[in-house]
Amino acid sequence: MEPETLDLARLQFALTAGGHFLFVALTLGLATVVAVIQTRAVFSGDPVHARMVRFWGQLYVINYAVGIVTGIVMEFQFGMAWSGLGHYAGNVFGASLAIETIVAFFVESTFLGLWIFGWNRFGQRLHLALLWVVTLTAYLSAYWILVTNGFLNHPVGYRETPEGLVIGDTWALLTNPSTLFAFFHIAGGALVTAAFFMAGVSAYHLFRRTSEYELFRRSLRIGVFVALPAVFFTAAVGGAQFPVLREYQPAKMAVFQSDPAEMARLQGDMAAKFGPGDYLPSEAWTRAGAIVMLSVFGLMFFIAVLGIVLGSIKWAVYHLRPWHVLLMAVVPLPFVAMTAGWVFREAGRQPWVIYGLLRTRDAGSALSTGQLRLSLTVFGALFVLLIAVNWWLLLRAAGRGPSGVALGTDDRSEDGSYDPPLPVHSY
């Protein structure tokens, strides 16, 4: 693949993967929080928690529905622009991608549909169990994606044949440290994303002195009290990855630490082993991704600590409007931090698409520069549109508050508005 064509292919994959990940982070976190709230609603019978389930559940469904479309595009990338990767190692990671597709597009989507449309048709506990299946399969789907990504970053469990790579040790592939660390890191980051989102939306309604003050008081407290342990857990798992990276991807760590002597030594070693070429990742992208990620996580930590303090003061929750403004303003921070983290993870393994085995330039399809420009334009426009539509729908539904929720209601009155569910089915 020509250098310009390769750059376009990499840019296209980066934009589509990054765009899809914005949906994944919020979906994973919201699913978990909504499942916990519904559990509380079922076993306590608290009507406020029941209404919280419907409100936050509707925002979760919106994000999931639009995000699933972006996930479909990701499946096309391997065959369209990266057929060389599929031919060489598809027998290793193809199974994990297939399982992820089955989990996400069949199991998770089916149970989510039952949860959405079966609100007034199932018993409370069965309906709750449906959401927990959705939540657990969402994490299972993320795990299978990371089995593939972990293999690309740290190939284990494979065996080389004349036709390419095949699975040699399934257990080693499934327990790859690169996969497990990334999974828990992302799981924690998803909770951070949901916590900041909940706190920001709740702060908006409390700032406006909404009549739903009790619902949003509780929601804001959930957001701020989840944020701090989630930030701490995510940062701890992220920090635990650095010793692993020093062993498996020393060039990435040398670039991150800006160690010229180590960089020169590693470049010489890899050139001697693999032949002439530049084997160091882009210093600009690798270091910038790490610095942004670490800086934003530090900022979120201080905001989360402040949230714990102020969230414990009832007057502050209701009346401290500068804090409400701050919580609204910092909603994007988790998305920035997680995107920067992915830049650090992926840019730092270049020039390898499979670290130490297959170079990125050898993994592309036989596409022309014009073809990739066209596909990049189409996919880029599509993702911009989907992201814009998703946030418009989310902000519109969030701004309307619980009175505009349609989730969990079946019957319509003559004016088209939704009636509340029958009391016998309510939480």
UniProtKB/TrEMBL annotation:
Query: Where is the region Disordered?
Result: 406-427
For this UniProt entry, what is the primary localization, expressed as one broad class? Answer: membrane
Q: How does it sit in the membrane?
A: Multi-pass membrane protein
What domain of life does the UniProt record list for this protein's source? Bacteria
Location in the cell reads: Cell membrane
Q: Where are the transmembrane segments?
A: 20-43, 55-73, 93-117, 129-146, 180-207, 219-242, 288-313, 325-344, 374-394
Q: Quick check: keyword Cell membrane in the entry?
A: yes
Q: Which UniProt keywords apply?
A: Cell membrane, Electron transport, Heme, Iron, Membrane, Metal-binding, Transmembrane, Transmembrane helix, Transport
Q: Does the keyword Lyase apply?
A: no
Q: What InterPro entries does this protein's entry cite? A: Cyt-d_ubiquinol_oxidase_su_1 (IPR002585)
Q: Which PANTHER family match?
A: CYTOCHROME BD UBIQUINOL OXIDASE SUBUNIT 1, CYTOCHROME D UBIQUINOL OXIDASE
In the record, the note on similarity to other proteins reads: Belongs to the cytochrome ubiquinol oxidase subunit 1 family.
Tell me the protein's name: Cytochrome ubiquinol oxidase subunit I
Annotated organism of origin = Streptomyces flavidovirens
